[in-house]
Structures are given as C-alpha cells and as structure tokens.
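Reopening: structure tokens for the flavin-adenine dinucleotide complex, inputs below.
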Amino acid sequence: MGSTASARNGTWRNWGGTVSARPAREVAPASVDELAAAVRRAAADGLPVKAVGAGHSFTSIAATDGVLIRPHLLTGIRDIDRVAGTVTVEAGTPLKRLNVALAREGLSLTNMGDIMEQTVAGATSTGTHGTGRDSASVAAQIRGLELVTADGSVLTCSEKENPDVFAAARIGLGALGIVTAITFAVEPVFLLTAREEPMPFERVCADFDQLHAENEHFEFYWFPHTGNTNTKRNNRSAGPQRPVPGLKGWFEDEFLSNGVFRAVNWVGRAAPATIPAIARISSRALSARTYTDIPYKVFTSPRRVRFVEMEYAVPRAALVETLRELKAMVDRSPLRVSFPVEVRTAPADDITLSTASGRDSAYIAVHMFKGTPYQGYFTAAERIFTAHEGRPHWGKIHTRDADHLSRAYPRFEEFTALRDRLDPERRFHNDYLRRVLGA
Ligand SMILES: Cc1cc2nc3c(=O)[nH]c(=O)nc-3n(C[C@H](O)[C@H](O)[C@H](O)COP(=O)(O)OP(=O)(O)OC[C@H]3O[C@@H](n4cnc5c(N)ncnc54)[C@H](O)[C@@H]3O)c2cc1C
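Re-run output (same inputs, fresh job):
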C-alpha cells in the first residue's frame, strides 16, 4: 500500500502508533481525474476527505473518519526540465523513490530531512525539514503545485500563477486541497562530506554561532543525563566519493544506531533508573567519522527504532538559551530520557505557515521510545519552547491551538482566509485542523 502506516480491519494507524482512525471508505486514485471524482463523490455524500502519505506524522493531522485517499497509485516522475532545473512528480511518490530516480538522472534536491520514507506531498504538507544554513525545508524547494480543491477542480500555482495559493499551499497541512503533483527545483548531483564528531555540550553551546556559520549543514544530538553531544557537519566537496565502507556502515548505522539502540531502549523502558548510565555509555559509542557521498546518502539514514516526537522551531538567536533551559529541566527532574535531543537550523523562508516563516530558526526535537510515557517530558519541554516564541512542527506532537498559533504566525489569517475561499464547507477538515486552524 505504499505506506508504512498500517491498515488492519479498516483501521488506519500512523507509524508512531499515536493515532488511529476508521475511515468510512478508502480510495486509491490512479489519476488526477479519479481523485477529483472521489472528492466530488465525497461532497455528494457529505463526507470529509483526507489524503494520507506514509503515516509518518505523530499528530492526528492525517486522520479521518470520512474518505481516506491512499497515495500509492499516484506515484512517479512526470517530467524533468533540465533547462529550468526542475522535476515534476506525482504527489504520492515516496521521497526515497524520487531521490534514487534523480540520482540516476545526475540530479538532486538541495536539502532533505533525516529519512526518506515519506511521500512528497505528505512531507511538504507539514513542513518537513533537515538542517541548513542557506537551504531551507523540502517545501521551500517547491517551484509549482497542482491540487484538487473542494469543488473537484484542478488548481495550479507557482510564484507567478496564483501566488497567494503558492505562498500557503507549499505547507498546506492538507487543509487547502489534495495535492496531485509537485514541481521541485533540482540541481546537478553533488557530493557532501560529512564529519561526525562527539563534542561536549558546553562547547557546542559556546561555539554554536560559529559552527552554524562555518558549515552548510550543521546539526547535533545532545544525550540527556550527560554533557555529551554528537555533531554532524555536511559541506559540499569536490570529492572523491568515499562512502562509509559497507561493513563499518552496517555496524554503525544498523547494528549500533538501530539494533543496539533498540535493545538499550527496551532495558531503559523496563528499568528507567538505568537510563542515565546507559546514556553515558551510548553517547560515547559512536566515534568520529568522515565520509563523502551523494546528498540523500549523507542526509538520510534508517530509523527503525519506533519513537514519539515533539519538535519546536525557536528563533535561531534563542537556541542556546532554550537548550540550556531544557537541559536544566531534565537535570533537576525525575524524568528518564533514553533518546537524544536533535538540534537543527533553517534560514527564514516565505511560506505562510512554515515554522521558519519570516525568521531564521533553530529546531529542537525531543523524543521518547514508543511505549514509554512521554507526556511529562513533552509538557515540560513545550513550556520552555513556547516561552521562547516556539512554533511546533505540524506533524509532531504538540498541544497548541488556533488561538496560540494565530499569535505565533504573523501570516496566520492569510492562510485561514485562503482556506475560507478554497474550502468554505471544510471538505478537508478533521479534528486536528479544527484545533490548530479553528472552525
Ligand atoms: C522516523 C521519522 C523521521 C522523521 N524525520 C523528520 C525530519 O527529519 N524532519 C522533519 O521535519 N520531519 C520528520 N519527520 C516527520 C515527517 O516528515 C512528517 O510528519 C511528514 O509530514 C510525514 O509525511 P507522510 O508522507 O508520512 O505524510 P502523513 O503523515 O501521512 O500526512 C501528513 C500530512 O500531509 C497531508 N497529505 C498527504 N498527502 C497529501 C496530498 N496528496 N495532498 C494534500 N495533503 C496531503 C495529510 O493529510 C497530512 O495532513 C519524521 C517522522 C518519522 C516517523
């Protein structure tokens, strides 16, 4: 079904196991015409409609009790325009398939997130991002969009055509229509050299501005209950290509980062008191390494250990203070956290409801192993993030509502006015959108 979310006995579940839904019916359109017909039929039956991607959002943003549109027959590359430097793909195409196909054509996206299981429409609809000094989220690389709106008509937009729709629909939260195709900017495939290196928490905090300024893509993981981090710097390189050797890559990326990490989390879940000691060992398990490869092989890695996640974007200038407060909170609390905290950045962009809309941003992501109570940790973290004008990732756990978000986003009303115009009857509504956008 082209989705790592599961569907059993008519119940749809997301990857993190935090959301389930029982849609009235499921449709897998194989063309834009079939999709438009499904939207019209839902309207005639008075049912809401929701397209899902790979179910990798932790929030209920993709859940519906109406008509669930599956992505797996709307996949593949429609067109590559080498002169314009763009590729147009069907909305249900998994990022992995896009990346592999582009590499075969000698092309690449400029930046991407940690994994590539998501569909292109699913990833962009919630603002999926990686880390970058100059390059922003996956949605910021969009040059054109095609969507089916609530009346079943097809609407296209770009910077020049329907620019008001383009500004909002690149991160549309599934609220403005069903995306059927996306045109991305691409560039000739290039090489990135990754340097992964442990670094004390205090040093990363002290040197953060410099590390950010000197590297095209800087990120780090802080291990709660320790003063240790693992940093990663990716910069363009003239080569030669030097991937992580096969056996070493398997040992570090599969055995240590997934197999051993899963076992460690099992132990931590059963005996939380062991977590600080385990954290001290695991934060030292990965040693420094350098490798050079094509972008998607450097940016993304397998994430097989299931978890739940909250992530907030704060103004980049507030990162160090926010992170120090988070560490102080964990240090003085009885919380036991076995998953590292991930820190990334993005430059300001011009997308209405992007977490980086109009401001240089830093992302702080907190995780908990699936099946471990996360509410206490996430509530305390969220209090810190919102005190620093944080904006929550639309696809990751948070408790904010339209009242709060209308103050966090200067262009919030621009988005809701467009939704009023494109979807006056709220065909694409669900409980999550009611909470974050209002009725
Ligand atoms: C292991 C893991 C790693 C992750 N890593 C990152 C990361 O590095 N960076 C980051 O920012 N996020 C990350 N995420 C979050 C994830 O990228 C987002 O939640 C993303 O939206 C999931 O995409 P999906 O294809 O699974 O879409 P879903 O979660 O299925 O849907 C997301 C939204 O897109 C909408 N949608 C889907 N298809 C369409 C369509 N055709 N038209 C209109 N709306 C549509 C849905 O209705 C829903 O609103 C990660 C999640 C997991 C589980």
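The CA atoms of residues 331 and 438 lie 37 Å apart. Residues 192-392 form a domain with the Vanillyl-alcohol Oxidase; Chain A, domain 3 fold (CATH 3.40.462.10). Marking as resolved unless the reporter disagrees.
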